[in-house]
Amino acid sequence: MSMRPHSFEKSNRRRTILATTIGNALEYYDFTVYGFLTLVIGKLFFSAFDPASQFLLTIATFGVGFVMRPLGGIVIGAYADRAGRRKAMVLTIFLMALGCAMIAISPTYAQVGIAAPIVIVIARSLQGFSAGGEFGASTALLVERTAPAERGFMASWQFASQGLGVLIAALIVAGLSFALPATAMESYGWRIPFILGLVIAPIGAYLRQHVEEPSMAAGIVSASERQPTIRGGLADLWRDHRRAVIVAIVITMGGTGASYVIGFYMPTYASRELGMSSVAALFGACVTGGLTFVLSPLIGRWSDRIGRKPLIAGGRMALILLIYPAFAWLKASPTPLTLFTVVSLLTAVLAVQAVPSIVILPELFPKRVRASGMSLVYSIGVAVFGGFAPFVSAWLVQTSGDKLAPTWYLISVALLSLFALPYLKDRTGDDIDLSGDAVSNSSSKAKVIA
């Protein structure tokens, strides 16, 4: 008989949420603040090219960080499965800070030529490697030994922390853009957000070092049960969990494309394509981050009651129906009020389907390969369909001349992701024991949908 997990004491649960949320928010702040400075970074690091090429190259460099995420997911995810979630999470935050430091002190193209963008690419690759391992370790820590009826709520803090990171990054960049003239922003102002990310990283590391990891401390997973090598972990995933890996990647891609267009490309789109002020556009990103942070735990609770699949399916269909009219309205009326309304609506719809998509991932894999499995599938989905979504959107606008072109990309990805839903087993309300088998929880009020 499998060992049923027990919920944390309330104090331990709060401590886990706090340490994971703050640390993860700092990670996403460091990783995403680059996306809000694309126009300035393009001028400084790709000055040898025309403005259109500068813009595309800067966004492509933003996407480079996502190319490294699958590798980080494999390496750090395997480390988390062997050494523990806490150690992996401390490692990721320091790696992210190192990438942030490289960008903060990097000389510009005018100072060192081609070496400048090379440094940025290396720094973004390091940040992507870190972010790839962060997801699996932090999400696994949130859900393991959590009562089945609360797993959605606990895992929802992963997406909530991403929203908090976006909110902090957008607020800081918006404040600097408002307070500093353009010349000062291009001279030194753009470095300040990266320096702040470097300075506050030790706070997140401290919180993570002191969080309790009862699953490892109690010896629930013995040394013989842990994955011995990275190669062994990959072989195990592909041999025994191939279907889960493929289904999870397809499910993930439906939300990540919309997430990175709404959260990161939208401010640049509103400023560059619609002529809105950069400060107003960045405050639109603040709305996205703030709503994500507030709504995610509520939606996590909702998914615990009615199941993951209904919310994923309903959220994807709502996104498909709303994305084109929302962009069309913003194009016809490019005002701050319209922008804030559009991003609020799209963020709410996005959260409805993104939260249960994240919650369902740890329910697909056994503990032995849970962190590496989640990190791998999420990193691939984000790398292919999320990180380069801003680049694809910008390229579509420039090549077609249609300012609504990004909507067709998002609609296509969302439609494609729906095909994976029939193959996805909803384990809402079930125990996910150490072997990974779902044990029916008859006492749970959650609705289980096969």
Question: What would your notes on this structure say?
Answer:
The chain has 450 residues and is mainly alpha-helical. It has one domain (10-211, 229-435): Growth Hormone, Chain: A. Helix content is 76%, strand content 1%. The chain has 19 helices and two strands. The protein has helices at 10-32, 38-45, 51-67, 69-83, 85-105, 109-112, 115-143, 151-179, 182-187, 192-209, 214-217, 230-240, 242-273, 278-306, 308-332, 336-360, 370-387, 389-400, 405-418, and strands spanning 431-432, 438-439. Strands 1-2 form a two-stranded antiparallel sheet. α1 (10-32) packs antiparallel against α7 (115-143), α1 packs antiparallel against α10 (192-209) and α4 packs across α7 (115-143). The longest helix is centred in the middle third of the chain and has 32 residues, at 242-273. Mean pLDDT is 81; it is low at 1-8, 216-225 and 434-450.
How many strand segments? 2
Helical content (DSSP H or I, runs of 4+):
over 70%
Question: How many structural domains can be distinguished in the coordinates?
Answer: 1
Roughly what is the average pLDDT, rounded to an integer? 81
The CATH homologous superfamily is called: MFS general substrate transporter like domains
Distance between the termini: 23 Å
CATH class: Mainly Alpha
Order of helices and strands: HHHHHHHHHHHHHHHHHHHEE
Q: Give the C-alpha Rg.
A: 21 Å
Please state how the strands of the largest beta sheet are arranged side by side.
Answer: 1-2
Proportion of beta-strand residues: under 5%
What general form does the structure show?
globular
